[in-house]
Each structure stands twice: as structure tokens, then as C-alpha cells.
Amino acid sequence: MSARIGVVVFPGTNCEHDTVLAFERAGAAASLVWHTDERLEGFDALVLPGGFAHGDYVRPGAIARFSPVMGALARFAAGGGPVLGICNGFQVLTEAGLLPGALVKNRGLRFVCAPARVRVDSDRSVLTARIEPGTELEIPVNHFSGSYVCDTRTLAEMRDAGRVVLRYVENPNGSLDDIAGITSPEGNVVGLMPHPERASDALVGSADGLPLLRAMVTAAAAVHAA
Fold first, then answer.
1. What is the domain-level CATH number for residue 208?
2. Whole-model pTM?
3. Which domain does 67 fall in, by range?
């Protein structure tokens, strides 16, 4: 039986079906989870996909963090379950306190939608495990509030612990230290702004997101086997 991925849907999410398809390409069984669902039994990993949860009112992710599913997701993460936030999902994870820092408006106050080259800087996460640090990937970005910020102490701690997992080769949004993705201290909760699900088929542009998704599926499979 395949590892099962739950893809959480908030009002305003718009990348859920792309994400399900991409994880199926990566070898998992994936299905949608509505944001009011507080029961997550049976899932081996959880994903918060991109979009505009609750219309990004107040600020991106600020309302979504109070959805009933987030309490269950936090318990899942605390138990070591793999959790991934992509773009808007990354914003939700920071708002919920599951990852440090915040995502603010892009440099120049411009929406960015373009391919971006990122470099894997650490393999200490469920998203980058067994991917050689230094590997460069081309993965699209599509955001207005994607510039990562945090205080200097947090940045130093993440650098020292190898928790900055992805950096932009050419920074598209003004993100601090070129950060494109980070992980929790345990490596099981990851947030990134680029969209690996949109780089999962070479026939439509790039399959560079697949190594990341397959690493996540491998982590989910380990949970399933346990």
C-alpha cells in the first residue's frame, strides 16, 4: 500500500489538485482534506498547498492558522509526522508558529511569477533528504508576499543547524539571506516558497521538483511502515 498524503484545502486554496497529481507522480496516494476536519488519522504526511487561504485577509495565513485542522496538524507534526507548506502553505506554517520568521511583501512590491533557480543547501529535512547539497533546481515561484524575514538570532541558529534547506541562486523577492525554504529543528516540518508541484512533469516545463516530492514521499513511507 502506498504512503498516503493529505493535502489541506482552505477557502481560497488554488493549487490543491496540482499538488495531489504531483504527489501521485512521485509515488504516493494523495487526497484532499477540508480545513474544518480535525481527524487526520490514516495520513502519513500532510501538505499545505499554495493559493490565497481566506483571501489573504489581514495577511497571508493569518486566518487559516485558526482553522480546526491546524490543531490536528500541529499534533501530527509534534509526533514527528512530515509536514510541508508550499507558498501560501509556508505562510500558514509561520503564522501558526510551526516555523520561525514571516513572509512579507516582495521587494519592489511586485507579484513574481517566473521560473527560479534554487540550490539545495541542506539535506537535513524530509524534503531534501538524500539530495546532494549544492544541487541546483529550476522551480517556479508565484507570490506577492514571499520575502522571508526573521531576527538575526534565529537566522544564525538556522544557519548553524542546517535548517535553511533551499536558497535562491538569483533572489527574486528580496528574501533574507536568499532563503527559499526552511525546516523545523527536527527536520520534519518544511516550508518553501517555490512550487515543486509545478515542476513535476518535463513535458510541461521542468521535472526538477520531483526529487523534493519523492524525498517527502520516502519520509511518508517510513511513517506508513512504522
1. 3.40.50.880
2. 0.97
3. 4-225
